[in-house]
Amino acid sequence: MGSLIKIExxxxxxxxxxxxxxxxxxxxxxxxxxxxFYFLGFQPLEALKIFFIIPIADLYGFSELxxxxxxxxxxxxxxxxxxxxxxxxxxAEGQLIFGGIxxxxxxxxxxxxxxxxxxxxxxxxxxxxxAIFALIPAILKTYFNTNEILTSLMLVYVAKLxxxxxxxxxxxxxxxxxxxxxxxxxxxxxxxxxxxxxxxHAGIFIALMLVALSWFIFFKTxxxxxxxVSGLSLKTARYAGxxxxxxxLLVFIISGACAGLAGVGEITGPIGQLYREISPEYGFTAxxxxxxxxxxxxxxxxxxxxxxxxxxxxxxxxxxxxxxxSIGQIFQGLIxxxxxxxxxxxxFKVKFLITQKKNEY
Amino acid sequence: xxxxxxxxxxxxxxxxxxxxFLIATSLSxxxxxxxxxxxxxxxxxxxxxxxxxxxxxxxxxxxxxxxFVESVPEGADSERVIRQLAxxxxxxxxxxxxxxxxxxNKVAKDFPNVKFEHATGYIREHSNVSTYSARFYEGRTLLxxxxxxxxxxxxxxxxxxxxxxxVIRGINSMTLAAQKVNPNIKTKxxxxxxxxxxxxxxxxxxxxxxxxxxxxxxxxxxxxAVQVAEKAGVWSFGQASxxxxxxxxxxxxxxxxxxxxxxxxxxxxxxxxxxxxQDTWHGLKEGMVAMGPYNPAMGSALVKEVEQLQxxxxxxxxxxxxxxxxxxxxNLLVAEGKTADDGMLAGMKVYVxxxxxxxxx
Amino acid sequence: xxxDLNFIGIIIAAVMASSVPLILAATxxxxxxxxxxxxxxxxxxxxxxxxxxxxxMMSTESxxxxxxxxxxxxxxxxxxxxxxxxxxxxLHVPTGLALTIFGIGVSAMLGKNFxxxxxxEIPVFFENLDKITFIGPILxxxxxxxxxAFVFPFFVYYFLKKTKMGLIVxxxxxxxxxATDQGINVILVRYLCIMFGGAMSGLxxxxxxxxxxxxxxxxxxxxxxxIALALVVFATWNPLxxxxxxxxxxxxxxxxLHMQAAGVRIPxxxxxxxxYLLTILVLVxxxxxxxxxxxxxxxxxxxxxxxxx
Lengths: 361, 361, 309
Known about the structure:
The structure holds three protein chains of three kinds.
Chain A (H helix, E strand, L loop, with lengths): L1 H4 L9 H25 L4 H10 L5 H26 L7 H18 L8 H27 L3 H21 L34 H18 L1 H11 L1 H6 L4 H28 L10 H11 L4 H25 L3 H30 L7
Chain B lengths: L1 H28 L4 E5 L9 H14 L3 E5 L7 H11 L4 E4 L5 H10 L4 E5 L9 E6 L1 H15 L4 E6 L4 H17 L4 E6 L6 H13 L4 E4 L5 H9 L2 E6 L10 E7 L2 H13 L6 E4 L6 E3 L8 H16 L9 E2 L5 E3 L7 H5 L15
Parallel strand pairs in B: 1-2, 1-3, 3-4, 4-5, 5-11, 6-7, 6-8, 8-9, 9-10
Antiparallel strand pairs in B: 10-12, 13-14
Helix pairs in contact in B: 2-9, 3-4, 5-6, 5-10, 7-8
Chain C lengths: L4 H30 L7 H19 L2 H25 L4 H20 L23 H5 L4 H19 L1 H11 L1 H6 L4 H27 L11 H11 L4 H23 L6 H19 L3 H7 L13
Helix pairs in contact in C: 1-6, 1-9, 1-10, 1-11, 2-3, 2-4, 2-9, 2-10, 3-4, 3-9, 6-7, 6-11, 10-11, 11-12
């Protein structure tokens, strides 16, 4: 431990370190991946190529990477508002599902109707649905002093059961032989596809807009400054005119709306209807993405791409090498470990700049 | 958005054409016959996916090369996995969960030379898509008969997963058969909203036993319930696979999902070029639904009775849903002397008389 | 419904049995969080404990080896988290989440050959006495882990409140800087607490795969780690309240199953959502006292610490 701590003694921030840290993580990941594959009896280089390169080697693969990264990025952007201000919203999955339910309901309402106005309404109601669902833990936290970790988590299960109730009950497709699904949405209720033959849709613009917007808020507005300060020290923030309750409500609304938007993107994009499983736990995965991106909008873009790639890589590895999917999970875990660990170098740099005394993040 | 969409479409048309050729060439380059499987759970679930995996092993044993991808979520991810399997030269692809229905058909459109087999669905939009499922309810009829004879408390406990027609059909089939041999039968149901969560299944089984059920039945995958039954000294039935070794005293018999013959037959047909689109719903007759060994505790007379019933169900002499059948409110569902047609069975959504509780209608 | 004392006794026993893994994992995590560390990898450590316990049991047929093996495995995997967060100073939340993914993957890998095997019989205590009305099923006929789970939180409570070691743990969690100034090796204390949390999660996993549902299935912990994490918060870092919270959650879970079985004509999705809704409601009611919660919350929770020269 002693030798590691020496790193703090460097006084300058060199750009080489900023670049070196993620590169080191990638090298370590590839190295350990090669070792794992070697012990499983595969040609390591070939296996790594299948995991990391083959899935995105063609246009289709790359578009799928973006498709998978889009909801993760959207949710993570929202969560960064919460986490920056020490609001532990871990129920984004529930907010995603609730946003999906509300917007899906609207889409079903416009079943068989055409009109340019339909999709914007669906998108807005989805964001609204997610925001409303996120307001529950926010209000409980601000007015009833209830811990948001527990409430937001419990509400995930509630949202899942509500969706289940709707798709097997009142919203079941009347022509679908009572199978647990709604009708397919009409074309006007679907996200426009960007390219023919690919699934990537206009939702990616929502993601990019949110990235830009959050970057602007974080770094160019007083609100962003307040949030940053309140995350570091509540007392200082109060001097800066920070209003606790209002901010809590606001960040939950933002993150809920984002999660809701991710839900809209899924159901009006690649899925096109509601059924029991509209999200492979994007809401939980996005928590990792948020932190991996270091709560920074640009970082979140990269983090969502990396995490999305691990899913695609695991699928690819199973198809071409028949390694169990669990290897994919082990691999994902390792990648995250290495990326986090290599932050070590970066982390100290940043800390060094801000203050000498406090070393809390 | 539409305008942008159109423009991008034009620009990228050439890209997609190039992509198509790329796929086409890679397909022709890989001439070996391959069978693909997409699973919803891990192969280690010892239930639904495990049994499909056993079917795959049989295909492999029959000398054909196979590939599987496990734990594929039913949302947007499945389409990519199915497409990748098609793209990477698989000639026939089995997609083994209801939620893969629309993705399967979508991919099938783009790969007219690949055969697709979708389990438990009903959409066959293209001539290269078949659907298949098993008449598990026939097995439930046998369980109902046994349960009706074995129960002392006239109460049968049923652990159910999700309120979809497949599960409701099983409950009704069992209850009707039990009522035939024991008019005082009541069926108590607990929905656990999971296909496999041993802890929850065990709790459900215990609750049913505490509520007076002395025969436990399940439409969930794990062996937890039969273990609880064994400990409590009540009867139980295995699900998906033979569960007798988990509870030798308690398990009376098991319903076994045997996909192997179908998978081997269809894969061979695809290989020989004799594959044709069809909608398969096989039962006891074809062996897709098989029964585990009968527990000697049933007594030889009952075993004989059940074996006869099994033969009659297989030959079509007896039908699981023969009128008169009433729903919970006493409305006539199937008239005397009539049998329920497959359409009604496929979309079954109400409980028959004698079942307690409420499902959303 | 036949209401008699014996029936109630049986239900209480079922509630207690279902809350055992939650109590164990939550109490372990409580100590971790009391030392200022937030380990969200509980789910991953439980599942590692489950497969290790089952594997040891099947290969050695010794319950003692199985239990300690599971706890040891929990410690090993928790050390990954410890090394990353304490030595390499990674952020707690994503490291814990990564640990969960990693644990689920590793357990599935290790467990491939154990799928579909029935577990071995586990010794229970005073089996014959469980016929006694009411108290029989509650007190007798359970495994060693069951009894341990209900006694253990009292020890932890005592440890935190009355012992010097407990005071050190709390001091480290409340302010690592002050603790350092007093000459406490913060990193060491946290390492030990993390290992302790790993052992308890491992034990919770062993309970699942050895006692509660003696078998191995992938993902068999099914989210209990998350519920345990939520319970720690629910209990405001008080081990006795962990006990209460776990029993409360268990009661609602079991009672809703009984309501379903009794044929209550309410949509089953609503009944299934009850444990979550009522837990929120109870939390709202008990959280009103702002100061009490603040008093118990470890101030350094989840914050990265390193010692300056």
